[in-house]
Fold:
Amino acid sequence: SQQGEEDPQALSIQEGENATMNCSYKTSINNLQWYRQNSGRGLVHLILIRSNEREKHSGRLRVTLDTSKKSSSLLITASRAADTASYFCATDSYSGAGSYQLTFGKGTKLSVIP
Amino acid sequence: DARVTQTPRHKVTEMGQEVTMRCQPILGHNTVFWYRQTMMQGLELLAYFRNRAPLDDSGMPKDRFSAEMPDATLATLKIQPSEPRDSAVYFCASGSYLPLGGYGYTFGSGTRLTVV
Structure:
């Protein structure tokens, strides 16, 4: 079952613009992670934000987390054509018996037009 | 950089045949996940292991799928018999516990399975 739901499903912007993607989830989480997937490739981990954090930066990436609204956003600043990919949020949640599950949303397809 | 290695990268097989996909997790990672990705369903968790012990395989069709981890360097996912609806990209990911809690994961490049 899907835990995270990304919004929008697809986003097309001009190079240099900022791209914002949102993710909502349903249950309590330990942390939330964002991944990128280039067409036909595997997933690449971008950034992890813990449940007790509200904002995190990594290069041109900025992630926010609002646990009261069960939502997160990923901002890519000064986008480049190479940022064209699908972006997934994934929630790391405790599933009982000492185990954690990583559950993905369906992703946002970002197209950056040169 | 440490990598998760999946083999084969591509597999085309006929309906009814057995398919085995292999994954070599990163040395020292104690958690292994198997995911299936399709356009319709997105990324679905099939099974995962902690310290080689299966923890949850509720996402996996038990009648035809099986996942094992015979040793710390190898995880396998088998489909027998395969069906056209099993066509998908299968990803393996391995992870380790982070100092401040939770797990960090690395994904393999996937096995693209086509069942005709």
Notes: Residues 66 and 72 of chain A are 6 Å apart (CA to CA). The mean pLDDT of chain A is 90.
